[in-house]
């Protein structure tokens, strides 16, 4: 299945520690939000995430993405040295191409230290110790940073084999620094002369300081989707989609350790990955227009020209002298400034390359735009080792396809019209609308002060409700109006109805996957402000419906209805007890936690033989006490207690022990009989009214 990039985002790449409040969660949030905004999707649309970083504790990916919502999706943390970002991208692509997902996030970030890379753990084997040992055996070990020596020696080998001059490496650095002057995201944006580059401090001959990439802080993100997603769910996003024609990952070969300095730093594995991509995408190097490749050192960019087939083996010097690696030449290579000038936060680099190529293919690269770019090529390398090569192309869609946004799938039978009253929760949102538009509920709006998007799936399809309860604008509830919101809730029709009416605890619904949250998940707790009124409105509507039904019937039915309508005006001594329990539940949150059960009380007046039905719900997000005027409330109870009005008053006032009342048959208990003992929790709470 084809795979497309539809959203990209990245932070500025910064010198480590230069920017305040730029810890990895901050940079990850900035990049991901940018990618989501660019894509036109919400975080709740993401089905999986692959998060790359090298320096950090386990589960930094979860820490970063939980800021956007805890939707329960798989989040996989990835580490593949300098190829970490592209490895996350590779895994996201494989998940989509394998038909296992339709919308996946690839995120990479790094918070680094200043100075050259060093060894973090000295009490265990180093993953690149074999590379360093072979280098030291053949070329000796000098005082410079190990990575500079590895890549510098590859440059020396190329000079020895093909006659390449030090100035050719310097010209690459000069080009990349020049390219970066047009990239506002670049860590450095300075232009240098060839002399300045050649005369900067020598790190490991032929490499000077300005030919080496810096350490950096930064993040980049990309949203990838399947062809099915674009065709069926969001055809409105097709026009800006960039297709990943092919992506390949390779690791070290036996030839890596056979004595060649160039192979030691990935020449052969780069060549193999490129060949796989060209073959799979049915393209050749000559078809490529713009390239982002791994120039951690200028020497690596030079040898990679040949590994990718951009020029013949040994032909890099002439390739550079002709200007075939920059604007006006055959290719534009590293228009972003490359790692040398843009910066190199290890986990972000591979995805930042994807970002750059997509900008050019979409014609959005600004001053550095490669005109007429149709195919882009990415190369990302990590010692230890891994290499990822990918080819991209602006997607071409047949003429005549509709780009109309279709948030809702077609209904069976061909109808595409869905109305709010086809959903069980439609009445929930009607009640909320009445509530937030009531002039007497100004304090409610101040308490909530947030906007919500509800994505509800029912038998009819999917619908969206927007509830805007912000104090700075007039509150409203809109059906099937898709707009940004502070908190997004996704659920099935039945499940959301149960949560909003208190039948299902919201936290249990979230943990069981029935309710998904994104945006600011803490705002979901404020929904309890609506819950009580919602239940009242639904009960009122239910009563009105039953009144209409029964009043149509003559004789005894009419008498029965009249009797039901009069029940709310009949006074029982226990009425005050239930009122006091409701008051205490609102004040004392620990009381509901201690009880943690739903009770149904059937209270009978011994003189008139009239009955009242009460429900005490201590399980819901908002504990409630309700009088059921219709004798048939559908709320399920854990424990049902039947007794007389006088007996119940005696039990709650402490004058009669519940167990004695039970054994003397003054108290009838069904359901979980052990919960009857918890009635003592209400005793002290109800004393004040007696």
Keywords:
about 700 residues; alpha/beta; Peroxisomal Thiolase, Chain A, domain 1; Nonspecific Lipid-transfer Protein, Chain A; ten-stranded mixed β-sheet; five-stranded mixed β-sheet; 25 helices
CATH architecture of the largest domain: 3-Layer(aba) Sandwich
The rounded Rg comes to 34 Å
Q: What is the class of the largest domain in the CATH system?
A: Alpha Beta
Quote the beta fraction.
15-25%
Count of helical regions: 25
Average pLDDT score: 86
**How many domain modules?**
3
Sheet of most strands: 10 strands, mixed
Predict the CATH topology of the largest domain.
Peroxisomal Thiolase, Chain A, domain 1
The largest beta-sheet arranges its strands as 3-2-4-7-1-8-12-11-9-10
CATH superfamily of the largest domain: Thiolase/Chalcone synthase
Distance between the termini: 72 Å
Structural class: alpha/beta
Residue windows where pLDDT falls under 50 for at least 5 positions: 404-417, 546-565, 685-690
Residue share in helix: 25-40%
Total strand count, please?
Answer: 22
Shape estimate: elongated
């Amino acid at each position: 299945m084809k795979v497309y990039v539809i959203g990209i985002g990245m932070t500025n790449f910064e010198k480590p520690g230069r920017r305040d409040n730029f810890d990895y969660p901050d940079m990850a949030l900035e990049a991901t939000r940018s990618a989501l905004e660019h894509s036109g999707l919400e975080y709740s649309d993401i089905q999986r995430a692959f998060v790359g970083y090298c320096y950090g504790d386990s589960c930094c990916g979860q820490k970063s993405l939980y800021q956007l919502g805890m939707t329960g999706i798989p989040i996989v943390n990835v580490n593949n040295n300098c190829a970490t970002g592209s490895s996350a991208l590779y895994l996201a692509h494989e998940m989509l191409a394998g038909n296992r997902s339709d919308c996946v996030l690839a995120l990479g970030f790094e918070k680094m230290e200043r100075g050259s890379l060093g060894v973090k753990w000295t009490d265990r084997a180093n993953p690149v110790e074999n590379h360093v040992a072979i280098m030291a055996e053949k070329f000796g070990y000098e005082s410079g940073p190990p990575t500079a020596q590895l890549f510098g020696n590859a440059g020396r080998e190329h000079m020895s084999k093909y006659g390449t001059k030090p100035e050719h490496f310097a010209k690459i650095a000069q080009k990349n620094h020049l390219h970066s002057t047009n990239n506002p995201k670049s860590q450095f944006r300075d232009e240098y002369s060839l002399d300045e580059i050649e005369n900067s401090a020598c790190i490991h001959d032929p490499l000077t300081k300005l030919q080496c990439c810096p350490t950096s802080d930064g993040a980049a993100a990309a949203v990838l989707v399947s062809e099915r997603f674009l065709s069926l769910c969001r055809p409105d996003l097709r026009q800006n989609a960039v297709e990943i024609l092919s992506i390949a990952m390779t690791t070290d070969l036996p030839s890596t350790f056979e004595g060649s300095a160039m192979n030691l730093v990935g020449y052969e594995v780069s060549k193999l990955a490129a060949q796989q991509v060209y073959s799979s995408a049915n393209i050749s190097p000559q078809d490529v227009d713009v390239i982002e490749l791994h120039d951690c050192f200028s020497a690596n960019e030079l040898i990679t020209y040949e590994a990718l087939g951009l020029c013949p083996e040994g032909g890099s010097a002439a390739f550079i002298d002709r200007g075939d690696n920059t604007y006006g030449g055959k290719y534009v290579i590293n228009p972003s400034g490359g790692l040398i000038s843009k910066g190199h936060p290890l986990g972000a680099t591979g995805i930042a390359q994807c970002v750059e190529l997509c900008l050019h293919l979409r014609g959005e690269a600004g001053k550095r735009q490669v005109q007429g770019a149709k195919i882009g090529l990415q190369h990302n390398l990590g010692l230890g080792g891994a290499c990822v090569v990918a080819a991209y192309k602006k997607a071409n869609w047949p003429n005549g396809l509709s780009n109309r946004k279709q948030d809702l799938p077609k209904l069976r039978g061909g109808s595409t019209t869905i109305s709010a009253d086809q959903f069980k929760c439609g009445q929930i949102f009607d009640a909320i609308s009445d509530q937030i538009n009531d002039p007497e509920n100004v304090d409610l709006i101040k308490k909530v002060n947030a906007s919500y998007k509800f994505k509800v799936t029912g038998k009819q399809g999917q619908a969206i409700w927007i509830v805007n309860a912000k104090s700075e604008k007039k509150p409203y509830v809109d059906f099937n109006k898709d707009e940004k919101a502070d908190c997004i809730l996704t659920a099935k029709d039945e499940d959301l109805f149960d949560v909003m009416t208190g039948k299902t605890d919201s936290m249990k619904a979230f943990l069981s996957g029935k309710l998904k949250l994104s945006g600011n998940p803490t705002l979901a707790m404020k929904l309890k402000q609506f819950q009580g009124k919602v239940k009242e409105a639904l009960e009122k509507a239910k009563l009105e419906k039953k009144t209409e039904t029964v009043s149509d019937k003559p004789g005894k039915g009419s008498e029965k209805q009249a009797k039901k309508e009069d029940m709310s005006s009949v006074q029982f001594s226990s009425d005050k007890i239930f009122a006091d329990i409701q008051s205490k539940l609102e004040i004392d949150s620990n009381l509901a936690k201690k009880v943690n059960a739903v009770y149904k009380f059937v209270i009978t007046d011994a003189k008139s033989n009239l009955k009242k039905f009460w429900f005490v719900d201590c399980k819901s997000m908002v504990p409630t006490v309700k009088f059921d005027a219709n004798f048939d409330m559908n709320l399920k109870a854990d424990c049902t207690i039947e007794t007389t009005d006088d007996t119940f008053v005696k039990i709650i006032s402490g004058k009669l022990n519940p167990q004695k009342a039970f054994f003397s048959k003054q108290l009838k208990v069904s359901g979980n009989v052990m919960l009857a003992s918890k009635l003592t929790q209400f005793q002290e709470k109800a004393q004040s009214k007696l």
